[in-house]
Specification:
The chain is mainly α. About 75% of the residues lie in helices and about 0% in strands. α1 runs parallel beside α3.
Amino acid sequence: MATNKQTQQDMPNAHLHELFIDELRDVLGAERQLLKGLKKLSSSAKSEKLKNAFQAHYGQTESHIDRLKQAFESLGLAARGKKCKAMEGLLKEAEEIIESFESDPAADAALIAAAQKVEHYEIASYGCLVTYAKLMEHTQAEELLSATLAEEKETDVLLTQIAMKESNVNGA
């Protein structure tokens, strides 16, 4: 842990430090916002498999928040999030989809599309964070963020599987 609490002048690629911290705060805010969105997605899903996937991701998201707090701690910083405008927009779009497709046979397919947009945003965010952590040799933060990145990718794959087996298939 001592190697993670380097002073800025000792750290490789220190020019990335402020960006890294800002992005950590942004993704912490995004994950907290997502908790509310996942509840809405889950209650709107018709398929039990999709409901369960959203509920499982809710639990994962709580773990993602805990890991982010640990990442901040490994850097000697308080875990402070900020409002993520991207997640706010993605969740607003998801709410519009819920309203627009509520009684439509494509409702679950639309929910999956909205959820995958969120996942892809998270994958991009965590991918950048892992890279920054690696370049600055924040080993503990890198490990924590990599674990979350892997889970985000798994969720995206799961949503695609549900779409292909159920939601996007006629008569499902």
